[in-house]
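This protein record is not my work; I was only asked to verify it. The record follows directly below this note.
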Amino acid sequence: MNEKRYLILAGGLWGVSKQLFNGRQIDPEAGQEKMCDYVIAIKGLPDNMFQPEELNRHRVWKCEHCNRPISESEMEGKWGCFAHKKSFTEIVRDKWRVDVFEKYSIPRKKWMNPCYRVWLNNEQGMEKFREIWRYVDRNFPSNKTMPMPKVVGNKIQWLVEESEVPFIDLSEQEVPDKVEPAPEVRVEKKEVKSYICEICDKEWDNKNSLRIHKMHCLKRKKVKVEV
């Protein structure tokens, strides 16, 4: 997920940029055609966005007795070196939709690796790029300006060098400002004095309450005595 990947946007980004970038249209630089490819590098995208459509597994057989590769016809017809001791090597080949989304390499741009090409002249390619860009838009810091793809040059010449490729790093973690702890508030506990009734031993927290209580308490006691 923290791998830096290059995206080549082919098939006319200029014409569909308003749809992809919330109304913002990318303009080519002076002297460059609108149909040119664009490039951007992104780090921090999920790996599952860059899986091939399917994987083709192919076995290449070798005859250990004759020290030669065994052809598919020998294996299917069960003749020749099929009956000999043999070993195999499994070759896994990626299968891509080359008209939609594909792993891509430019021989003279070895630094652009890994690189993927998205074709924007069809709805499947558009949706693939929308999936990628939605993730970028959700995870890009809101307080920063998001770089846009850059035109690679013209139909004859590639003009963008490695240092000029717009780069988005979603793997960066913003360090929040240090928050000073709030000062500790100390609450002084006040000692509460209690007053006890000498008649019934009931406890009161102030003299006035005790005085009123004692008056009632004496009356009740007097009634009980008279009875």
User: Anything to note?
Assistant: The two ends are 93 Å apart (CA to CA).
